[in-house]
């Protein structure tokens, strides 16, 4: 790895680079230009390693994994890359001499929002870990011109603004024009007999989209590995436009250009609604086909091995079902282009592909209408139809007369293509993302498949990059840990457990408290600057940051806050432990209840914060535009981590792990990875409440829960429900939420869990009152959080699923 020898060399290189890039004097540079200059300098440092990493993988013919995900929520890269190349101090010192503060330069990088939330952030943590572990693994996705919208709050409501993150250029990407591939859409496809008694596919009158890769280096931490995140951009093909024009059809030519440019224009803003479905399907096939084509081409050119050995050298992982078309696309290439038989093509495909399921919410399982699919992807449809026919034949042979079985495992059913079913059938490995989630997949969601292929199923509990979420986000905590147990935990995060020896060490706990207070003060200053609100740093910082969704139950949190407000108003002399409740998160633009939840939080916030009879003890704030960089400020400042989803609904959660690693105490349900957090640290070090997943399931199956009964029998709940519609809350009306709680019988058991949540909040306040015990719990959380490093997760994927070994170049 090349480095800058000292700050003098940094300053010299910076000056040269800046002159060349911007053609102006250093004093005139904007902060964004300073950031970009350093980014290009880092690229210079790693470019040789980037080339050599790829050369060496090919020369040694090592097996490589390609992680396909429709989202990569990378966050800013300047600081993480400076840390990875170990040049943060030299850069900071050099910049200081030149008159800049690195801490001012870092925020000048736009945070690319190429993802909605947890799923996209997981993909980013995974490729970070792959590179850190010197594993040959790369990301594959779409270069959206606009990321997830920027969120503003205007009149208490969410407003969505376009995220034009590329407007000033993106110095980390390298456009690779020569590596473009072509993706086919539309036309007719049919089978016709060849002379020798076989069938071949004819696909005609399709239109072609050019896929151009933009590569981003994924730099390993303190090693020489530089892997690649390949992002595809759709361009129109000139030949195609000329063809239309030459046939005299200007309108068709125009429509074609326009529809192509749509493909990589926007990140689909929501993973659970109906809008823009055709375009979304185009996006999915676009990045899948481009990615698979380029992998096969690279394999043939650089490995020179027989196509029959493909799965020995290539693993393709699909992050949820959005890239599931990898399966029929591999079949298409193997059969139509490589001339393999169905049987051989299928065997290789299944051995290549592995699938991670991310959701059990039935409304979020991906399905495509057959007519739309056929029209857009006729060749791929024929293949899926054949996969389905052969599969159902086998099922009916294995389970004669059992049509329920056939229905439960069919890929085509009811006019729809079931992508989860295609994914399970076309993969050799299916995993859930936390123990409870993997169990639910086997017991219910994919039970019928589990009985067919029990050996395919496994669990891989999610993780987070401890480099980003501890070392980068909380450097003072990281160096306190270094001072206490040495720095080996940085490479081996499981060694954080050595902190257990310090859970009763008064001096360590004191210093930990000091770090936490500093971060609370920093956040308080940000809130003062941006929102002109004063918050008490001696109050409990109770934080819920995640996408806004009914199942995540921000409503439970805000109803409890309203309940505290009523208590304080009814008993003016009452004293409670001062609390600051912070919320952050985006609602899908089309999700009415989620947007109403944001409005409710903001209206309650104004009502409470402006009421001098309560605002010394209670503050509530909704922080705009939650994203990776805001998260890096919030997780380290938290005392309490709100993880209160309806049990059985959150596949894993990863926010819970980020809080834990930063010493916050979890207030949560037995859901997702909370179950494993609880097992690692015990009841003394987190507060668990509410219905369990099996109890929730029982209510769904057998009935027996009536939210109206709760309304009539519990005066506190009645008062809260009435407040939603009678103007008590800022004179405002919250009809959708009222309806969801009462008319729709509270599908997410908010009212049912309300009492238990209130008790849990009391328990938190009680524990916070005992400083020493609270700090002990905080130490235990940090000490046990090493398990949740994505390095552990990726090692499990590499060993159990991908069969991948670390590989370093010379
Ligand atoms: C970690 C993270 C998430 C996922 O949070 P959950 O609480 O697990 O839903 C979502 N968005 C961002 C920006 C994140 O960093």
TrEMBL record:
InterPro entries: Glycg_phsphrylas, Glyco_trans_35, Pyridoxal_P_attach_site. The keyword rRNA-binding does not apply. Belongs to the glycogen phosphorylase family. It comes from Megasphaera massiliensis. It catalyses: [(1->4)-alpha-D-glucosyl](n) + phosphate = [(1->4)-alpha-D-glucosyl](n-1) + alpha-D-glucose 1-phosphate. The keyword Transferase applies. This is Alpha-1,4 glucan phosphorylase. Its EC number is 2.4.1.1. It holds the Pfam family Phosphorylase.
